[in-house]
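Quick question, first post here. What does this chain look like in 3D?
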Amino acid sequence: NSNLNLNARLYFNKKLNNKGRNLGINSSFNKSKDDNDLLSNFQRIYFPNSIDSTVYFDQLRTKYVNNQNFSIDVKYTEPLFKNFFTDLAIEYQPGIRTNNVNTRQQFQMDTDWSIIDDLSNDFERKENKVGASAGLRYQKGKVQFNFNVKYDNLSFTNYFNEEYASFDEKYQFLSPSAQINLDGWRLNYRYDYNIPDISQLHPITDNTNPLYIREGNPDLTPYRGHELWLSKYAYSGKWKYRVYVGGNFRNESILNISRIDADGVTYSRPVNFSGSANSIYSGTGLNHTFEMKNQKLTVDLNVFGNFRSEPFIINEQQGIAINKSIGTNISF
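> Answer (accepted):
Ran it through. Tokens below.
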């Protein structure tokens, strides 16, 4: 495994008057490279006919990941009248993502390493994002209200090797958001979108686990959902406490559909799916420092819980998976 990560950031902020007029410019550059070799020794036997079904081979799967991203955004705040402000912003984010996979195999009767075309492919994705947002903000003391609308224009170009045709994608999204701060309580809401990961888009088969074979899907598209978050952090003398509850609520998502064959091998492929998928998470915590002679003891107690409901499809049979959990931890 070989990796490299470079980051650079430039920030400029200028206060233009004493009434709240402000200009900010933020720019960043990131380059990451991750080359990974995975050597697997396969011994696969299917029963009851173990003699005829036994397969032995070695596989070397090399994955080359190279990402490069640049972003620049300009933010401007203008006071409207007492305690009211407008926040304006524009941004530009170009990027390139490379995800190349080369798979070689060596069999018992043939010591040469052979490239397996069905398990090898090059994938490069050029991304361009142009965004603009406008918001209204009220702020007085410990009270603050924000309402914002953001527009994003996304443009993607996908390049493959000669076996797959290149294609373009274009999307436009309007994403409203709101925030309320009241004496330490913070409520956030956002209606936003999520972009498929490049590993999900790559049209290649991953059989490094011979009993769980994963396939990519270049036809995946972004999906939308609601996000809600409520929290409070407070201090009272030497006591600190926190409480939070949040959730994601979607009517569309990316779902891994599965197929299990007669030999017990699972084949999984991501697809866009229309159906309810929700998750709720919550927790509370208490922190206190006890002072003794020449010593201090800090105790931190946390209680948390999660609920998740999401669809699944196995062998064309659809259902709902519900997961619940509750836990606690204490540290000194």
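The chain has a mean pLDDT of 89.
The helical segments are 50-53, 198-201.
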